[in-house]
Amino acid sequence: MESILKNAIQNNKEWAKFGQVASYIPELAKGNKDALGACIVEVNGNVVLGGDYETRFTIQSVSKVITLACALIDNGKEIVFSKVGKEPSADPFNSISKLETREAHIPLNPFINAGAIVTTSLVSGDNGIEKFSRVHNMIKKLANNDNIEVNYSVYRSEKLTGNTNRAIAYYLKGANIIEKDVEDILDAYFKLCSIEVTVQDIAKIACVIANNGVAPWSKEQIIPTHVNRIIKAIMVTCGLYDSSGEFSVNVGLPAKSGVGGCIMAVAPNRVGIAVVGPSLDKHGNSVAGTKLLEELSQELNLSMF
Ligand code: DON
């Protein structure tokens, strides 16, 4: 597996030149466009690292998977899916347009920004600090790493420039979909996006999901199986926003991308994979990371379909 990963990274590094590092959050523009790193964690706990695996990046929208898991554990699926849908969106991740036109105004799914702001509001905790801690602790537990912290420069940059997210959140409050203080919920959302990780952290999280919610290193059932099933299903249909269909055809795995350049992919009962390549396509997904996953899926015969 080590040599397959090494070759795949070498073969796909060049794709970075066809994308751009995210710049709508100024601090993200500092990401290394040419970096390409990956980690594969097998369900027996074996870890394989390749390329620029030491690159540190912010988790961004990959956090939406863990936020959804916490919201489902804390509320049950009836309450969660009364406030956010399960349907894919053909619009960009930060789109606001469907909120007004859809019946009951609920966001299409928990992985677009609007949906993740709703799931953040549903996580247990009396305020944004407690909600953030709940998901942050879950991320640390799933990654088996107590040293995962927020990158405060990115957080400040997100908070300063996050006006579209602010508009979305106030709309949701006006439509009675989120309760409590809007700025407090947004603060938790911005902080969750700004958690700094490596591919090894994310591949471990993916590995727990691949292993039906059980951590191979402790045998603990961290995510209940019924919740684990739901998050995998939504990763297939909504994980790469308006290119989820193309990703399913070419890679064939539940996955979630983030504008920090990470893609987390889950091969059920086999491996968790994380790739990082900060150069993004027009949908906000890592260009070289997507191509790398295509090759890994083929070489390791990972597609679910
Ligand atoms: O809400 C935002 O704009 C970001 N902090 C997270 C967006 C993101 O990662 C979208 N993913 N491709």
Task: Describe this protein with a few key phrases.
305 residues, alpha+beta, five-stranded antiparallel beta sheet, globular, binds 6-diazenyl-5-OXO-L-norleucine
Describe this structure in words.
This protein is of the alpha+beta class. It is 47% helix and 11% strand. It has 13 helices and nine strands. The strands form three sheets. A five-stranded antiparallel β-sheet has the order 3-2-8-7-6. Strands 1-9 form a two-stranded antiparallel ribbon. A hairpin with a 4-residue loop joins strand 6 and strand 7. 6-diazenyl-5-OXO-L-norleucine (DON) binds next to loops.
Brief write-up:
With 305 residues, the protein is of the alpha+beta class. The chain is 47% helix and 11% strand. A hairpin with a 4-residue loop joins strand 6 and strand 7 (262-267).
Bound ligands, each once: 6-diazenyl-5-OXO-L-norleucine
- Number of E-type strands: 9
Strand residue content? 5-15%
Order of helices and strands: HEEEEHHHHHHHHEHHHEEEEH
Measured as a percent range, the helix fraction is: 40-55%
What is the structural class?
Answer: alpha+beta
So what's the overall shape?
A: globular
Q: Gyration radius, to the nearest Å?
A: 18 Å
